[in-house]
Design goal:
The protein is an alpha/beta fold. The protein has helices at about 15-25, 50-60, 85-90, 105-120, 125-140, 145-150, 155-160, 170-175, 180-185, 195-205, 210-220, 225-245, 270-280; strands at about 30, 35, 70-75, 75-80, 95-100, 250-255, 260-265. A hairpin with a 2-residue loop joins strand 3 and strand 4 (about 75-80). The longest helix has 21 residues, at about 225-245.
Length: about 290
């Protein structure tokens, strides 16, 4: 496995060549906000959280302190990193924003956008999963290569991508934080969509935590004893009581499948004689 790289080291740890240019030539320009378009590979879909509202208020008061990193695109620019700031600037009513122009391939733009969001913990699990999927399908990345870039285990990346296999209703609940990623991974251990739906509804109705959900799923997977067998045992118990009352001694019926035995107990020679006499003279038609 490639060595992990900490997110805390920043984007320069992942793309030193690209971001070294920012240090070598920290040349800023200003452009009209309408000249900028969002990153086509932006993994984040929801910008309506509290953090975004706070950013809008900050920009209204102090303007944009950190420039938006862009690349040339058609007649304007496409964002590489800083889409939150660009959107907040629009909402704050700014007409112009500071930018830094850099050369970047589609793959670099997609990776930088993902990493920036992960560093700010701005993605929900489904947005993160879709970002990994884009890197794999569009740019030929593997679980291992993505994990190396973002500083996570390969298994973490793989398990996150698996969330995309969940039914749409459960995915939406994950986005709305009705369930957690832990709940979702537990649900994925169930094979059919019908059973997944039942477990999901139970989680929501009972407000189960992840541990309780895992126990529920384990119970569903454990084979249950047939009700028919349980009823048969009750019948045998009743029959044993009736025979014991008839012969005035302990009688035990042992049965397996269709075969078995009846055990009649006695404690003395006299009692044996009494039982034999009863057995020889029993007439079921009387």
């Amino acid at each position: 496995m490639p060595p992990k790289q900490s997110l805390g080291r920043g984007l320069e740890a992942m793309f030193p060549d690209l971001l070294a240019e920012m240090e070598d030539r920290p040349h800023l320009i200003t452009c009209g906000i309408e000249e900028i378009t969002p990153n086509r590979f932006q993994p984040r879909k929801d910008f309506r959280d509290r953090e975004q509202k706070e950013l809008v208020a900050s920009i209204r008061k102090s303007g944009i302190i950190q420039p938006i990193v862009v690349r040339k695109f058609d007649s304007g620019y496409e964002i590489i990193a800083g889409e939150r700031r660009w959107r907040a600037a629009q909402e704050a009513g700014l007409k112009n924003v500071p930018i830094v122009i850099r050369n970047a391939s589609d793959a670099e733009a997609a990776e930088l956008s993902l990493i920036e969001n992960l560093q700010r913990e701005g993605l929900n699990p489904l947005e993160e999963a879709n970002a990994y999927q884009t890197l794999m399908e569009t740019f030929g990345q593997t679980h291992e290569s993505i994990a190396a870039k973002i500083g996570k285990d390969r298994s973490t990346v793989a398990n996150t991508v698996r969330l995309l296999k969940l039914p749409g209703k459960i995915q939406q609940a994950l986005i709305e934080k009705k369930i957690t990623a832990g709940h979702a991974r537990a649900i994925l251990s169930i094979e059919t969509a019908e059973e997944q739906a039942v477990v999901f509804e139970t989680i929501v109705a009972r407000d189960l935590n992840v541990r309780e959900t895992e126990k529920l799923i384990q119970a569903l997977k454990t084979p249950k004893k047939e009700k028919k067998a349980a009823k048969r045992e009750l019948y045998l118990d009743d029959l044993e009581k009736r025979l014991s009352n008839l012969f005035l001694t302990k009688i035990q019926i042992k049965k397996k499948d269709r075969k078995g035995s009846i055990e009649i107990r006695f404690s003395s020679t006299e009692e044996l004689g009494r039982l034999v006499e009863l057995l020889l003279h029993v007439n079921p038609e009387k």
